[in-house]
């Protein structure tokens, strides 16, 4: 299940090195799964082959007089099998307009820098197949964040909220180094936190959350999930878990979640965010009931 | 061990109370609708009939508790909706004060009306 | 090609066509909640006619109930209350961590049940009143 196990797959000599590189191992896995069941997608893709795809990209640049008024630019991008939204905007930038600005790095859904608002939904550009979208494809920066330029949004607030929950392992009680011992985690406990560890800080969930949009102090799904990852880790002591719960049970912590499931639906790593937030609510209530 | 926090964090208390009142209201609201629209037709309600019901202490207490739970659940819901929209600072305090006063007034008035209905005044 | 783009309300309720089940459930729940708390205040105000005397109370209620529009509003109130109850049960389950994977289906189920109960209650609610 883990990404590591899939690594050998990427070592295969790809027929089309450029396109292979843009695919994440997860996409490959999904494709393998789907290829057995659905033949339609491949039919669709071959129909699109050789065609151009129309993408409408949000443009805005406060530093250039002509571009201070936000607008959409149309780009006709030649379609290639396996093309992602990120591939399309990269093509547009490299071929038509080098001023088109957006963040991207690993192109395989690991770095979390290319979350866009694609056809009305927060998606990861590198993990979204053009063939699966309605056309024309409308690409906008993430909602509820300040736009810096084109598709680049200001992530400072998101990072602030992430740091509020102290997103790092805290246990000074390390085994003696001379014993060559490790801080072990049970398999069950690893399974419990597994999904929550997958967060790539892309900010899609926070952007989709109606409450985070209204209440600026709300920690937001990503930060709460990060807190879950450590609060539920048995290697951390009871004391630190209580400390974590105290951060979460503030007025603008877990209680603001209205279980709209927006975050869970947009998460590109399929983290069950709402489930984790709900569990933390119950944990906080239980903790407080204990001392009555 | 670290210091024990024996008091409920404010958010957590109201969150739990909102759920507890919800569970209570689900039952009583359904009962209330059923009693006054199906068992007794709303159009046939008279003071005599109302008094006959209210005189029963169990019914009276249920109705008063229904009022208190409903007011808390509803007003807390309104307050939370506003906090979710980013209400803060002085405005938030004023809204909270107004809502608390309105709730107390509603519960007081409702309870008074119920005692009059029961004929205990 | 230049298109003015408002990043204000359009990001939220202007996007209503793209809302998913969970979001709709929340909107309906909040909306019905506002109606119910508003009704509670009205309800106590109307019942306060009992303070004037038994006659006034009976006359007020029967006078209101003889109005067609009041009966229609009562059916509306029933629909609102039933939805709030059913979706409230759904939310209680979600809070307990039950059925999170089928939360969209339970929302549709509460909508359908609300419709059925409301329609089935119309004869009882409309009994003995004419336009």
TrEMBL record, chain A:
<dbReference type="Pfam" id="PF13085">
    <property type="entry name" value="Fer2_3"/>
</dbReference>
<dbReference type="InterPro" id="IPR036010">
    <property type="entry name" value="2Fe-2S_ferredoxin-like_sf"/>
</dbReference>
<feature type="compositionally biased region" description="Acidic residues">
    <location>
        <begin position="37"/>
        <end position="47"/>
    </location>
</feature>
<dbReference type="InterPro" id="IPR025192">
    <property type="entry name" value="Succ_DH/fum_Rdtase_N"/>
</dbReference>
<keyword id="KW-0004">4Fe-4S</keyword>
<feature type="domain" description="4Fe-4S ferredoxin-type">
    <location>
        <begin position="197"/>
        <end position="271"/>
    </location>
</feature>
<feature type="domain" description="Succinate dehydogenase/fumarate reductase N-terminal">
    <location>
        <begin position="55"/>
        <end position="159"/>
    </location>
</feature>
<dbReference type="GO" id="GO:0051539">
    <property type="term" value="F:4 iron, 4 sulfur cluster binding"/>
</dbReference>
<dbReference type="GO" id="GO:0006099">
    <property type="term" value="P:tricarboxylic acid cycle"/>
</dbReference>
<dbReference type="InterPro" id="IPR050573">
    <property type="entry name" value="SDH/FRD_Iron-Sulfur"/>
</dbReference>
<keyword id="KW-0479">Metal-binding</keyword>
<comment type="similarity">
    <text>Belongs to the succinate dehydrogenase/fumarate reductase iron-sulfur protein family.</text>
</comment>
<keyword id="KW-0408">Iron</keyword>
<keyword id="KW-0001">2Fe-2S</keyword>
<feature type="compositionally biased region" description="Polar residues">
    <location>
        <begin position="1"/>
        <end position="12"/>
    </location>
</feature>
TrEMBL record, chain B:
<dbReference type="Pfam" id="PF01127">
    <property type="entry name" value="Sdh_cyt"/>
</dbReference>
<protein>
    <submittedName>
        <fullName>Succinate dehydrogenase / fumarate reductase membrane anchor subunit</fullName>
    </submittedName>
</protein>
<keyword id="KW-1133">Transmembrane helix</keyword>
<keyword id="KW-0408">Iron</keyword>
<keyword id="KW-0349">Heme</keyword>
<feature type="transmembrane region" description="Helical">
    <location>
        <begin position="20"/>
        <end position="39"/>
    </location>
</feature>
<dbReference type="InterPro" id="IPR000701">
    <property type="entry name" value="SuccDH_FuR_B_TM-su"/>
</dbReference>
<feature type="transmembrane region" description="Helical">
    <location>
        <begin position="59"/>
        <end position="82"/>
    </location>
</feature>
<dbReference type="GO" id="GO:0046872">
    <property type="term" value="F:metal ion binding"/>
</dbReference>
<keyword id="KW-0472">Membrane</keyword>
<feature type="transmembrane region" description="Helical">
    <location>
        <begin position="94"/>
        <end position="120"/>
    </location>
</feature>
<keyword id="KW-0479">Metal-binding</keyword>
<dbReference type="InterPro" id="IPR034804">
    <property type="entry name" value="SQR/QFR_C/D"/>
</dbReference>
<dbReference type="GO" id="GO:0016020">
    <property type="term" value="C:membrane"/>
</dbReference>
<keyword id="KW-0812">Transmembrane</keyword>
UniProtKB/TrEMBL annotation, chain C:
<dbReference type="InterPro" id="IPR039023">
    <property type="entry name" value="SdhC_prok"/>
</dbReference>
<keyword id="KW-0408">Iron</keyword>
<protein>
    <submittedName>
        <fullName>Succinate dehydrogenase subunit C</fullName>
    </submittedName>
</protein>
<keyword id="KW-0479">Metal-binding</keyword>
<dbReference type="GO" id="GO:0016020">
    <property type="term" value="C:membrane"/>
</dbReference>
<dbReference type="GO" id="GO:0046872">
    <property type="term" value="F:metal ion binding"/>
</dbReference>
<feature type="transmembrane region" description="Helical">
    <location>
        <begin position="66"/>
        <end position="86"/>
    </location>
</feature>
<dbReference type="Pfam" id="PF01127">
    <property type="entry name" value="Sdh_cyt"/>
</dbReference>
<dbReference type="GO" id="GO:0009055">
    <property type="term" value="F:electron transfer activity"/>
</dbReference>
<keyword id="KW-1133">Transmembrane helix</keyword>
<dbReference type="InterPro" id="IPR034804">
    <property type="entry name" value="SQR/QFR_C/D"/>
</dbReference>
<dbReference type="InterPro" id="IPR014314">
    <property type="entry name" value="Succ_DH_cytb556"/>
</dbReference>
<keyword id="KW-0472">Membrane</keyword>
<keyword id="KW-0349">Heme</keyword>
<feature type="transmembrane region" description="Helical">
    <location>
        <begin position="107"/>
        <end position="126"/>
    </location>
</feature>
């Amino acid at each position: 299940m883990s990404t590591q196990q899939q690594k050998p797959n990427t070592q295969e000599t790809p027929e089309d090195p450029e396109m292979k590189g843009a695919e994440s191992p997860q996409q490959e896995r999904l494709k393998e799964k789907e290829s057995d069941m659905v033949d339609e997608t491949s039919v669709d893709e071959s129909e699109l082959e050789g065609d151009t795809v129309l993408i409408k990209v949000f443009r805005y640049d406060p530093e250039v007089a002509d571009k201070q008024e936000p607008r959409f630019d149309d780009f006709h991008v030649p379609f290639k099998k396996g093309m992602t939204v990120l591939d399309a905007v990269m093509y547009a930038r490299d071929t038509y307009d080098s001023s088109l600005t957006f963040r991207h790095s690993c192109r395989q859904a690991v770095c979390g820098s290319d979350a866009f608002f694609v056809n009305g939904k927060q998606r990861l550009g590198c993990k979204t197949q053009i063939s699966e979208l309605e056309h024309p494809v409308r690409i906008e920066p993430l909602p509820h964040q300040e736009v810096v330029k084109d598709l680049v949004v200001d992530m400072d607030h998101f990072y602030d909220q992430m740091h509020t929950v102290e997103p790092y392992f805290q246990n000074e009680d390390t085994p003696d180094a001379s014993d060559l011992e490790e801080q072990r985690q049970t398999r069950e406990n690893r399974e419990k936190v597994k999904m929550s560890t997958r967060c790539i800080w892309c900010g899609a969930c926070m952007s989709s959350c109606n409450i985070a949009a209204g209440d600026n102090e709300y920690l937001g799904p990503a930060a709460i999930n990060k807190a879950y990852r450590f609060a539920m880790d048995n290697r951390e002591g009871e004391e630190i878990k209580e400390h974590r719960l105290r951060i979460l049970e503030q007025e603008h912590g877990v209680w603001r979640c209205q279980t709209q499931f927006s975050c869970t639906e947009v998460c590109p790593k399929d983290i069950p965010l709402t489930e984790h937030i709900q569990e933390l609510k119950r944990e906080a209530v239980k903790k407080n009931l204990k001392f009555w | 061990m670290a210091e024990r926090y024996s008091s409920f964090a404010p958010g957590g208390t109201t969150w739990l109370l909102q759920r507890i009142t919800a569970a209570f209201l689900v039952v009583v609201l359904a009962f209330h609708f059923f009693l006054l629209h199906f068992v007794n037709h709303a159009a046939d309600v008279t003071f005599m009939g109302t008094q006959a019901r209210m005189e029963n202490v169990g019914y009276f207490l249920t109705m008063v508790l229904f009022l208190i739970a409903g007011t808390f659940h509803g007003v807390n819901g309104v307050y939370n909706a506003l906090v979710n929209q980013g209400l803060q600072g002085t405005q938030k305090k004023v809204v909270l004060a107004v809502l608390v006063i309105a709730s107390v007034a509603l519960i007081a008035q409702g309870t008074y009306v119920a005692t009059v209905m029961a004929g205990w005044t | 090609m230049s298109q003015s783009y408002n990043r204000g309300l359009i990001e939220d309720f202007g996007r209503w066509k793209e809302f998913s089940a969970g979001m709709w459930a929340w909107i309906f729940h909040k909306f019905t909640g506002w109606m119910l708390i508003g009704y509670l205040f009205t309800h106590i105000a109307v019942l306060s006619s009992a303070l004037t005397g038994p006659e006034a109370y009976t006359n007020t209620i029967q006078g209101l109930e003889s109005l067609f529009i009041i009966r229609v509003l009562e059916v509306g109130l029933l629909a609102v209350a039933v939805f709030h109850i059913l979706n409230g049960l759904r939310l209680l389950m979600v809070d307990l961590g039950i059925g999170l994977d089928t939360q969209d289906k339970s929302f549709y189920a509460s909508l359908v049940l609300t419709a059925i109960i409301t329609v089935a209650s119309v004869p009882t609610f409309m009994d003995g009143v004419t336009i």
